[in-house]
Fold:
Amino acid sequence: MITWIAIFPLVTLGFFAIAPFAEDWNPVLRAFILSIVVVPIAVYLVVPQLMRLYGKIRAARR
Structure:
């Protein structure tokens, strides 16, 4: 669930960000470029922050 919470907004924002200049691109190329940008951002920046937040929430519940 945490991974999805990180990935979905990034993909949505990325899709809208590249839409103006990627209209004529093949959908596979669009997905490839989007994944090159979104996956590293999610893995190295967003998911670790969400995991820390989740850990703090769980610790506070105990």
Observations:
- The CA atoms of residues 4 and 42 lie 10 Å apart.
